[in-house]
Structure formats: C-alpha cells, structure tokens
Design goal:
- This protein is of the alpha/beta class.
- It has two domains: about 190 residues, inorganic pyrophosphatase (n-terminal core) (Alpha-Beta Complex); about 120 residues, Diaminopimelate Epimerase, Chain A, domain 1 (Roll), CATH 3.10.310.30.
- The strands form two sheets. The protein has a six-stranded mixed beta sheet.
- Helix 8 links the parallel strand 7 and strand 8.
- Helix 4 runs antiparallel to helix 5 and helix 4 packs across helix 6.
- It starts with a helix and ends with a helix.
- The site of adenosine monophosphate has 14 residues, from strand 10 and strand 11.
Length: about 325
C-alpha cells in the first residue's frame, strides 16, 4: 500500500484529528494545514477536526486557529503539514496524540512521525494536499473554501507561479482548484498586499542593499531600524523577495535583529544552493529559499562571506 493510502486509512480510523503546521506561518503553512482540515471536515462530517498552532501573523484572511486543551490529544490522530523538523512545529503538544503523520515538501532531514510523506519536488505542501484529494476523489470532497486555501498556499510558495518549483503539474492542480469558484483575484491581492510601513521599508532596502560583484546581496535590519519603521519581524515577509527583482542580484540574505539580540536570517537564491549554508547556522529549508539564525554580527559576516563564495563559484 502507498503511504498516501496508509494516511487515508489512518484518517478514516480516528474520530479526532488535530492538524499542526510550522511556527511563523506563511500562506503554504496555513493553506496546507487548514486546506486539509476543510477537506476532511467536508469528507468526514462525523469526525472532529482541529487546526492549531497559535497566531497566524497577518494571514487571518486565510484562516484562524483553534485553541484546544491537552486532553483532546488523547487517542487522536495528529497531522503536521509543511514542517521539516520537530522544533519548528507550532504547538509542542504535537507528540501527545496516538499517531503522528508528517506531510511535507522540504528535504526530509528529520523524518518524525509514524507515517511520513515527503515530496521535495512539490512546489508546496498545499500542492501535495491537492494531490491527495486527486488520489482519492471518491472519498475526499473538495469544495470552495478548501480549494481557496490550497490555491493560496500554492500561490504563496511559488511566488505566483514564478519560482522554479512551479511545474506543469502545479499549474494543472491550480486549474482544478480554480474550478471551485472562489475569488482568486481577491486572494492574489491579499497575498501580495503590503502595508505602507512595509512599502517604506522596501524603499530603504532598495537604497541600502549591499551587492558584491558576483551578485551576493545583503541588508541588516537592526532593532533600531525596525523600530524606526514601526515594524515587527513577522512583517518582513513582504520584503523577502524584493531584492530578487534587481538584475545584478543572484543570492541574498535579509538579517532581521530579534528583541533578544540575535538575527533571524532569511535567505533566497536564483541559482546557488543555499540550504546547506542555512543548516550550518541553525536553519534549513529549500535549495533556493531557506532560513537560519546568526547569534551576533560576527556570524552575520560569516554568513554573508559564505553567500559571496557560493555566488563566486556559481557558473
Ligand atoms: P522564511 O525566510 O522564514 O520564509 O523561510 C524560508 C524557508 O526556510 C521556509 O521553507 C522555511 O521552512 C525554512 N526555514 C526558515 N527558518 C528555518 C529554520 N530555523 N530551520 C529550518 N528551516 C527554516
């Protein structure tokens, strides 16, 4: 039996299903998590399905989370979507259920879970959930809200079908979801929208981005700078892809200082593989989109030097 069939068997077996995703959620985290929750609610109305993990940080146009007591985990099935490693799972009670399933599209560095379904070639975890529906169309009932969430996740992780992980299959699945009648133009606008404060930060970024002769770029956003713009870390999501529009830029890092003093590192690339570098600095992710942490400015320099080297060696 395939792992997907095993997952469906487990879903049918349990009365309570609790679905988690990663910390600092993005549209694919929420889209895959709540898209799956909505798909299962419609397909198995007799079951109780929860979506948990705390604040959705500006993504409330997609979905809100539920709060549940720890007792609810007793005898429940727990599914985690879009999360490569267990420390990144939002709500550490994920291991309190009876059975654990991992569904993800990041490199499988930590295969936590009793059942593990990982497709690193999938554009997004939302695409995998839509594939799951397509594998069992008799049993899984897609509908407008689930389709909207999954479409949102695909749009989010592919940068509106821009990044290389966008395949012919991604477009086929997106087309099938679009048939369910949600307002895709509105959703695209919501995903793309930035606040005026973030727009001003983009202006700062364009003016101050450091770019070397091989296309390695970086910007450091100190706590003082963030306070000047009146921004929180979670609001920097809107500027992460911004340096990529500059023709000279090949790979880049945005270093955002956290209230504790260390720097969250958001790494992106048009070619050089950056997730190995991310792993060396308490992070990870995809070959061209990763995250890491730098304890101080010395580690910030070290990471930028590594990006410079990767860009130099990239033909
Ligand atoms: P971000 O810059 O936070 O949007 O992250 C980009 C990608 O890197 C996402 O696929 C994340 O799942 C992954 N990522 C970010 N931070 C970490 C981390 N600390 N550990 C592992 N993966 C991460």
């Amino acid at each position: 039996m395939s792992v997907q069939a095993d997952i469906l068997t487990a879903i049918k077996h349990y009365e309570t299903i609790i679905i988690h995703r990663h910390l600092r959620p993005d549209p694919d985290a929420i889209g895959s998590q709540v898209g799956l929750a909505e798909l299962l609610r419609k397909s198995f109305p007799e079951k109780t399905i929860y979506q948990v993990g705390g604040p959705v940080e500006g993504l409330d146009y997609l979905a809100e989370m539920q709060e549940i007591p720890t007792e609810t985990y007793q005898g429940a099935l727990v599914i985690v979507t879009d999360t490569a490693n267990s420390p990144r799972i939002s709500d550490s009670r994920y291991d309190q259920g009876d059975k654990l399933i991992k569904i993800d599209h990041h490199p499988n560095d930590e295969p936590y879970g009793d059942l593990v379904w990982v497709e690193t070639k999938a554009s997004s975890c939302s695409e995998m959930i839509a594939d799951f529906w397509q594998m069992f169309p008799e049993e899984l009932k897609m509908h407008e809200e689930a389709a909207r969430l999954l479409y949102g996740g695909i749009v989010g992780d592919t940068g509106r079908f821009l990044y290389p992980a966008t395949s012919a299959h991604t477009l086929e699945i997106a087309a099938k979801l679009l048939d369910f009648g949600f307002d895709a133009a509105k959703l695209n606008r919501q995903i793309d929208q930035i606040s005026r404060k973030v727009a001003l930060l983009s202006g700062y970024l364009f003016q101050n981005l450091e770019i070397d002769e091989n296309g390695a770029a970086r910007i450091i956003l100190t706590s003082e700078r963030m306070a000047e713009f009146g921004l929180k870390d979670s609001e920097t999501a809107g500027i992460v892809s911004v340096p990529g529009v500059i023709e000279d830029v090949l790979a880049w890092a945005i270093f955002v200082q956290q209230p504790e003093g260390y720097y969250r590192v958001r790494l992106r690339s048009k070619g050089p593989v950056i997730n190995e570098l991310a792993k060396q600095h308490h992070g990870g992710g995809h070959p061209l989109a990763s995250g890491a942490n730098a304890k101080d400015l010395a580690e910030v320099e070290e990471i930028y030097d590594q990006i410079k080297r990767l860009c130099k060696e990239f033909e």
